[in-house]
Each structure stands twice: as C-alpha cells, then as structure tokens.
Amino acid sequence: DQQVKQNSPSLSVQEGRISILNCDYTNSMFDYFLWYKKYPAEGPTFLISISSIKDKNEDGRFTVFLNKSAKHLSLHIVPSQPGDSAVYFCAASVAGGSYIPTFGRGTSLIVHP
Amino acid sequence: NAGVTQTPKFQVLKTGQSMTLQCAQDMNHNSMYWYRQDPGMGLRLIYYSASEGTTDKGEVPNGYNVSRLNKREFSLRLESAAPSQTSVYFCASSESGVANYGYTFGSGTRLTVV
After folding, report:
1. Fewer CB under 10 Å: which end of chain A, C or N?
2. Distance of alpha carbon B80 from alpha carbon B96, whole angstroms
C-alpha cells in the first residue's frame, strides 16, 4: 500500500510555463516532505523540502506547497526550463524517528523548448 | 569532493552468482542507505545503517546482506542473485536525524541478473 503517491507518471510542459507536480500521502504522521530530482544515469539529488509547520517554501524557481488537511503537496517550477526535464520524486518522513523517507514512484517532467 | 562513490557502475550476473556492491562517502556522514529503483516503483529501501556498527532492514531486505565496514563504507551483498534482483541500486548518506538537506546519493549500479 503506497503511503506516498504521485499519480501522474509524466508531465509535458512548454518552456517558460509553470510546471506543477503533485504528491499525495496517506500517513498522517508524516511531517517532513522532500522533493528529489533525478537525471538519467545519475543518482537523485535533493531539491527542496518543507516541514509540516509551514505551508510554503521557496527556493528560486522552485516552490513547494503543503496542504496538511488534504494530505497533499505540490512542487511548482516557474518558469520551466528544458534543463528541468527529469524525474521528480516526492518523499515524506516522520521527524523524531529515523527521518528515513518514504518515496513516491516519481513523475517524469519533460520541458519542451 | 566526491560525495558518494559506488562501484561497479554496471554488472551482469548469472542466476545464483554472488557479488558485493561497494559504497563509500567522504562527507563524514553518520547514516548510510541502500535503495533499489525499479521501473514504476520509485525508490525502495533495502537496508540502512544509522551509525557505524548498526544496520537495519528496510522495506525490501530479502536476498541481501549489508556490512557497515567503517564510517565511510557500506556494502551490499547478493549471496545468490536472482532475476528479480535486476535493478538499479543507489547508495546514499546523510547526517543522522537531520532531514533538512536530504540525502546525498551515489550515481548508481545497474545490475542485470540473467
């Protein structure tokens, strides 16, 4: 049973537009959320995170929004660039424990020039 | 600054063969992890080591063993490889108990078992 779900396996966006990647979770104990980005033939790299005490966190073109009541988070990329084309993994963990995150299955983002 | 180094990058095994995947990190991290990534399955935790001298099972430990050789190195062993273990394996490390910056992953080992 998936505790972290990324229901869109793929997303295609035009360069310069907004990319919105969604993630849902079922475990109400999760209180720390992360996004990773993965290029082919490379390991995932940490992108951005958010604690459950916040509902928004920004880092340059990347913003993560958290809706705790809906158990939903999203990653916004504005403006999207062709170099953003990658697989994006959502992950969630429980603070105070081992912090080991549970990963979603990933969303493949393609940004067209 | 190498980060997390995995060897080998590619390997083909016959069913029943054994092998060890090596992982080393140079960031003085306390915790290390082994994940596998399969198409459409995301990243699944095989084993982890919260600190030197400790190891624990993750979500999919069957068919694997691990050794935390020292603070830098964490190896994954397949004693008798099976086709179901065909996957991409990632090693990662982190400061224990600090989630803010996530994990640092290696570039992966692509393993095929025939």
Report:
1. N
2. 31
Do the chains contact at B108 and A34, CB–CB below 8 Å?
A: no
Q: How far apart are CA B114 and CA B17, in angstroms?
A: 10
- Tens digits of per-residue pLDDT, A40-77? 989 999 999 999 999 999 999 999 999 999 999 999 99
Cβ–Cβ gap A100/B45 under 8 Å: yes
Q: Do B69 and B75 contact (CB within 8 A), yes or no?
A: yes
Check CB contact of B21 with chain A, cutoff 8 Å. Answer: no
Across the interface, whether the CB atoms of B42 and A41 are under 8 A apart is answered no
Residue B100 has pLDDT above 60, yes or no: no
> Is residue B107 a contact partner of residue A41, using CB atoms and an 8 Å limit?
yes
- Under 8 Å CB pairs connecting chains A and B tally to 57
**Token pair in block for residue B46:** 């095989």
Closest by CA to A36, choosing from A89, A106, A100, is: A89
DSSP string computed for A2-18:
-SEE---SEEEEETTS-
In this structure, is the dihedral angle defined by the CA atoms of residues A53, A54, A58 and A62, taken in order, positive or negative? Answer: positive
**Interface residue A111 vs chain B (CB under 8 A):** no
Please count the residues of chain B.
114
